[in-house]
Design brief:
alpha/beta, Rossmann fold, Dehydroquinate synthase-like, alpha domain, three-stranded mixed beta sheet, 14 helices, binds fe (ii) ion
Length: 385
């Protein structure tokens, strides 16, 4: 039996090379009068934000830029940004960037209208529908945040990443233009690409998944695994960038309708304790969680391996080859092991405790305890260089 589920698509997706040109048209449809563009300083300095502001100027639109969002967006970042949005009477938010500016922007849409602290909205269903309208423009292929209902924010006092989850904070419109990713550096392409691959695998295998999310996840695995090496090694290959963007989008749709699972529980713990790049944390942990989950979902892992191009009829062998392939893939695209994060093994107990408390822990396809998380952190540490 398939069972019953809801599949909500609150975001209008406009996809394609050169699609950024529809920004003015889409903002008019949202009845935008005063716009805040939320982004980061790196994109301002690289001249990328100009691509957006030129369009807004040509359309005579009133806007301000907020570039105070750093990696792993912090509670005080989004609260300060929401304060500016209120003072400036902002009525529409444009999020331009990777996962950090987009996740931050989602939190700002609710804080600017409903007040309070970011953590007040942790979990599901804490938000009234009255949020500022959001238009997202991703500049990396990884997060999927342009179409998901989640905003992951770091509580800086507790050093803990928490998630705000509601369709009320989802973008009204996502403009997804693969051309914007052409200048993403190789290591960022690699890390964000493995983040997308993790979304695809966890969206397909989470124990709360359903057939539409499964289909999106499995197809995303194919797009990503067949293009990630080329996108990393030859960044100006627009076809590879296009396919990575589609893979990231499908993976985002998959996990937002299912969930992520233990890879993200561990990666978010690592990311919040060491302020480490999210994609890299996922890359480090993905094969070890897959080894742990293998006995519970051998058939699904075999299908993932085949989607990655591994020809093997026996499910168990295919699944194991798939896990090895992912380990090799991370090395091939230049991602370092866990020791590059200067992780202290004395923190494994704390990291495991944080992982087990993560809101997605129950979605892992195999039940997992704190002690098992400790073992997985140890395995990732002692296997890696
Ligand atoms: Fe992620």
């Amino acid at each position: 039996m398939i069972g019953s589920f809801d599949f909500i698509l609150p975001t209008k997706i406009r996809y394609g090379v050169g699609m950024l040109k529809v920004l003015g048209e889409e903002l008019k449809l949202l009845k935008a009068n005063k716009i805040m563009v939320i982004t980061d300083k790196g994109l301002v300095n690289a001249g990328m934000v100009e691509k957006v502001t030129k369009i807004l100027e040509a359309e005579n639109m009133d806007f301000i830029i907020y570039d105070g969002i750093g990696p792993n967006p912090k509670d005080y970042n989004v609260e300060a940004c929401a304060e500016v949005a209120r003072k400036e009477f902002i009525d529409t938010i444009v999020a331009f960037g990777g996962g950090s500016p987009i996740d931050a922007a989602k939190a700002v849409t609710v804080l600017a209208k409903q007040g309070g602290k970011a953590r007040d909205y942790q979990g599901k269903g804490k938000i009234k529908d009255d949020c500022l309208p959001l238009l997202t423009i991703p500049t990396t292929s990884g997060t999927g945040s342009e179409v998901t209902f989640s905003s992951v924010i770091t509580d800086t006092k507790e050093k803990f990443k928490f998630t705000i989850k509601s369709t009320a904070i989802a973008a009204k419109t996502a403009i997804i233009d693969p051309e914007l990713t052409l200048t993403v550096p190789p290591l960022v392409t690699a890390a964000t690409g493995i983040d997308a691959l993790t979304h695809a695998i966890e969206g397909y295998t989470a124990n709360c998944t359903e057939p539409i999310a499964e289909a999106l996840g499995l197809f995303a695995v194919e797009y990503i695994s067949k293009n990630i090496v080329e996108a990393v090694k030859n960044g100006n290959n627009l076809e590879a960038r296009d396919n990575m963007m589609m893979g990231s989008l499908m993976a985002g749709l998959s996990f937002s309708h299912a969930d992520v699972a233990s890879v993200h529980c561990m990666a978010e713990a690592l990311g919040s304790l060491y302020d480490a790049p999210h994609g890299l944390c996922n890359a480090i942990l993905l094969p070890y969680v897959m080894e742990y989950n293998l006995p519970a979902i051998e058939y699904k892992y075999a299908r993932i391996a085949r989607a990655m191009g591994i020809e093997e009829m026996d499910d168990c062998k295919a699944a194991m080859k798939g896990i090895e392939y992912i380990k090799e893939l991370s090395k091939e695209i230049g991602l370092p092991g866990i020791k590059a994060l200067n992780v202290n093994p004395n923190d494994f107990e704390l990291l495991a405790e944080m992982s087990v408390k993560n809101g997605s822990n129950d979605s892992n396809p195999r039940k997992i305890s704190k002690d098992e998380y400790v073992l997985l952190f140890k395995k990732a540490y002692y296997d890696n260089n």
